[in-house]
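Figure S4 source data
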Amino acid sequence: MIFDLFITFFKIGLFTIGGGYAMISVVKDECVERKKWISDEEFLDLLAIAESTPGPIAVNMATYVGYINGSILGAVFATIGVVLPSIIVIGFISYFVKDFLQIKMVSDAFFGIRIAVSINIIMTAYKLIKTEIKNSKYKLLTIIMFVIFASIIIISESFKLNISTISLIIAAIFISVMMTIVERYKEI
């Protein structure tokens, strides 16, 4: 199991371009769908924990999945597995290639990579919302909140309104807490 955790997260780290957010859907596919190491609900919890704890999201996800499936040793090997490819690639690039991004073919490739990463992140958001809707008793509210917050982000970015991401997160938490309070009040 420890070796499998290392290899799985090494492949995730090696073949996912775009950082931690681009890795979310790959981690879900590998750890939930393929390996069945965690459930959909555990994945959503993992994502909430990984985003709310300090450090890179990819490292936090690997550590969590590794710990759940292999205790401390599993967490260590999964974490090493996910960061090792980046260390190797960045080390290679910085040592052997001067002015790497100035190479025309490399800059052209990165243009395409940015588009692919954006699509991957959009697909990840779609999968997360789909899972949340399936598991939530607040299906309509989830859809409405997603549409509202996505619209705010798109409008903010389009018109350079500079709306803080933190304020959107706090607003989403506030709405969720208020919905829980209202729902509990109804039960009384």
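Figure S5 source data
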Amino acid sequence: MTAYADLNKKYHMFSEVADSFNDDSVFSVSDDISAKGFQATAGSRILEGYRPVFDATVVSKMKGHGCSLAGKTNMDEFGSNAFCTTGLGIPRNPFDPERSCGGSSGGASCAASVFDGHIALGTSAGGSVSSPAAFCGVFGLTPTHGRVSRHGLIDSTSSMGPIGLLASRSSILKKYLPIISGKDKNDPVSMVQPDLKIGGRKLKSVAVPKGITDDVSVPVRAAFENSLKKLKSMSVDIDIVEIRNLKYAMPAHYILCVTETALNLARYCGMRCGRQDGDLTMPFDEYFRSFRTKYFGNEVKLRTIMGTYMTIGKNRSDLYLRSLGVRQLVIDDYREVLRTCDAVLTPTMPFIAPKFDEIGKMSSAGSYSAGVFAIPPVFCGLPCLSVPCGYHDGMPIGMQFVSDRWGEDVLLSAADAWERAFDIERPEVSS
């Protein structure tokens, strides 16, 4: 426990650390997952002081298997950023504390990287497990949407945002995914699902989208190309394919994401959910406006305004409903490719973890485009896995496997094989 508290002073991965816990089978959850005895703020001032009186289903399942909850990890406010810089705490990358951990599950990836054997549960509304996994040099698995119960999760997006797992070793993912999986009567989004066959299908072929490295940084391109050569040496077939509608996934995701965010966050108005310390003598609309202006961060405000705009009048059919159609087109494209290949393979992020002063100079569009590879599978509800695949100036680089629905077995098999073939580096951490 002392190591967790001491290292947290330097890396800020936890928003809250447990007073005591068993050092064996330790896990953490991001701050939008409910756990008795802990705050659940989703990284927002509007929820400061909220302490759930129940455990989320994933927390109950982990505790039921003898695991100890070490604490809650820092995240972007309501999962609204790619770099984990908008929440109540900003985690520091263990490979370089002047760099970002990625978001929104930045604290979870930091904990998984710093503590060998630790399993961190985070959420992924838009590649928010894969992104920080790549930046922090760990394995990040986002299951099929509906595989893991979201009961007890503070929602910002209803049709996205599965709970995923981050760890320093693939065997840890293999151990804990079956524990947290399964249909849950308390979660209308969870599904009846086929059995999780761990150690089943082996990775025999991958599809690489044509031109996928055209706009990535030189180090990422080099690491990805070297990884393709290594996969070939492992007897994995590489097919170059064209996924016609993949380029439309990003804008369509943004429209759906901000729309769902605006609708879900409407409940935080200072009356029933979240903080309730506003001036109740004010007129109705002025009270809500002043309260949300005071406690929401800038990125959440922007998404709320944009999401509201998407549902006004003709915009609903021209933007929101059309984006739903685009999602189905991208799903169909993925499935067409995955009929003949075990997985689609891309870089995870287009660049290595940026420094905090570099993030401050990025435009909103530039920041959002960082998820160009990590967003599409989550947008489509498909399982994906980020694995370390290279290093540049001491910073890790990741690549991402995407399989068809319920195809986590082939992803875990790929992670296991890759871990044996690739020399994974761990950060040198100190308090």
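The two ends are 13 Å apart (CA to CA). The first strand starts at residue 14 and ends at 17.
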